Amino acid sequence: MVVRQETYTHSYPHCWRCDTPLVYKAVSSWFVAVTLFRDRMVELNQQINWTPAHVKDGSFGKWLAGARDWSISRNRFWGSPIPVWKSDDPAYPRIDVYGSLADLERDFGVAVTDLHRPGIDELVRPNPDDPTGRSTMRRVPEVLDCWFESGSMPFAQVHYPFENREWFEHHYPGDFIVEYIAQTRGWFYTMHVLATALFDRPAFRNCLSHGILLGEDGRKMSKSLRNYPDVYDVFNSHGSDAMRWMLMSSPVLRGGDMPVTEGAIRDSVRQVLLPLWNVWYFFSLYANASRHEASRRVDSAHLLDRYVLAKTGELVATVRRQMDEYDISGACTSVRSYLDALTNWYVRRSRERFWSGDRDAFDTLFTVLETLCRVVAPLAPLTAEEIWRGLTGGRSVHLTDWPDAAEFPADRDLVAAMDAVRDVCSAALSLRKARGLRVRLPLAQLTVATPAAGDLRPFADLVADEVNVKSVVFTGDLSSYCEQVLTVVPRALGPRVGGAVQQVIKAVKAGDWSLVDGHPVAAGVALQDGEYELRLVAADAGGSAHSAPLPGGEGVVVLDTAVTPELAAEGLARDVVRVVQQARRDAQLDVTDRVALALAASPEVVAAVEAHRDFVAAEVLATELRFDPEAAGFEGEVGDGEKVTVAVARV
Question: Domain Methionyl/Valyl/Leucyl/Isoleucyl-tRNA synthetase anticodon-binding, which positions (predicted)?
Answer without folding.
Answer: 305-442
